[in-house]
Amino acid sequence: MFLNVFQSGIFQRQFRRQLWVSLSATLITFCHGIALGWLSPMLPKLLSPAETPLSFSIDVDEASWLGAVISIGGITGNFSFSYLMNRFGRKVSIYALAVPHTCIWFLFYFAQSIEMLYVARVCAGLTGGGMFVVLPIFIGEIADNSIRGRLCSFFTLTMNTGILVGFVVSSHIAYHVIPCAVVGLPVLYVILATRYPEPPQQLIRWQRVEKAEKSLRFYRRCDGPNVSKEEERAYQKQFDEMRLAIQQQDKDSDKNSLSFSDFFTKRSLKALATGLVLMIANIFTGTFAFNNYMSNIFDAVHTKLDPNTNTIIIGAVQILGTLASIYLVDRYGRRILLIVSCAGSGIGTSAFGLYAFYAEEQKVDLSAFSAWLPVTLMAFIIFIANVGVISVTMVVLVEILPHKIRSVGTSFCLGCLSFFAFTSLKTFPLMMFHLGLAATMWFCGVVSVICLFYVVVCLEETKGRSMYD
């Protein structure tokens, strides 16, 4: 299956530069993934006075705050990077993402109190909140319509790869070695970012038409000496259409500046409602909380395998799910992947809740299944969520919002995403402690079913939709 991807699609000559730039830009999501994956294996160590690598240990309430404060930074990052992107452009925002991320590793290394870990997690939230605003829009602007879905999915692929690396290094490498090994990556990311230009759309809006033309030639690989007449005609047609569309948008904006009424049109309200449902699906189907508390979940169901080993297996499965999404998203569309993903997440979390009910609450002897069934069920949940709910959400959000409200609407939806993430990360360990893992999993299953109903009834296919609509 994946051999065909290498022979066509994003690996064709005219798309290779877009692929390279997308991978360079998403290096920061790989770094962010390491910071996210760091927490799950590290949390049980921090909770144990005997095993903590620091001069202090934490309790359950502090652990829940350590998980949740990332979302406080996320909300701040959503809106601050949205302003930065619109005021100073995509490239400045891309450079700025490296600043809070670099701070994470210095704070982890020099942590002398739980407050320093809190600040580090807030910095992780700033990076994550900014990434979710800046990178999908940046990649969506530089990508050809035919491969936009796949390139945007690299956002999730690199983050999941980073999470896996975070799981591994946090499980097997000494605490103070990890920051030293990782802190150089954001520097490399900034160096790579100097090698590609501002997207042509932004340059046209700044009235820098000549630079915009050079930028589009760069991204469409029409800047060399061996450009054919056919490629030149196709490029010129695309540039003229882009310039006219953006100039018309600017004229419309000058006549009708963005106002509250723009958010209350039928199309805008439906798009915002869809965005909110997708944000709810992304968080409350459980995958985000699972990634942060994976080792604790496996410990609760008394699996025979080491909880950290199970966590690493799940990290690898995440990558497989994202690869499947990259292959499928531009072939079969976004809607069908979301339907399959919501349905599968509902089935998987309900089944895991049933296993947890008998293993944790009824004390039934499930030793014959404990070595393989919990990790198999969790692998299914994580795989199916990454095929759709996790990977496709940001692609659909950028495509479904009308252009006039896209920037503000994206920030609003991602601000809600950060709030939902805070709620999930803060309440998940408390729900596990007070209600049990089974009830917590069943709650995620109910959310999956509700989101499935909305997607089936209300969501339109966005595959191939123009970014200028």
Automatic annotation (TrEMBL):
Entry's Gene Ontology cellular component terms: plasma membrane
Protein's recorded name: Facilitated trehalose transporter Tret1
Record's keyword annotation contains Cell membrane: yes
Main location: membrane
PANTHER family: AT22075P-RELATED, PTHR48021
Lineage, opening ranks: Eukaryota, Metazoa, Ecdysozoa, Arthropoda, Hexapoda
Location(s), subcellular: Cell membrane
Entry keyword set: Cell membrane, Membrane, Sugar transport, Transmembrane, Transmembrane helix, Transport
Molecular functions per Gene Ontology: sugar transmembrane transporter activity
Annotated transmembrane regions: 20-43, 63-85, 92-111, 117-139, 151-169, 175-196, 271-290, 310-329, 336-359, 371-398, 405-425, 431-457
Domain Major facilitator superfamily (MFS) profile intervals: 21-463
One Pfam short name: Sugar_tr
Recorded topology in the membrane: Multi-pass membrane protein
